[in-house]
Amino acid sequence: MSTSTITSKGQTTIPKEIREQLGLSPGDRVEYVVEPDGRVVLLPATRHVNELRGILKHRAPARPVTLEEMDEAIRKGAAE
Fold it and tell me: Domain tally for the chain?
């Protein structure tokens, strides 16, 4: 188990061994999740590119859009 101290500004340093286990580097963001039993879970807020694969797959049109259709959509948008 690792411990850290909270400063007067409410800040704390994540112990090195925890940062290494989570693969955290300076500038990375973390998420805190408070469990119903009061435990706090610390999760890396960054996502590996492989985790993002397929995230937009359901938003893709059924067929590719032609250049003419893109141009028409741009014209309509500019007219509004």
Answer: 1
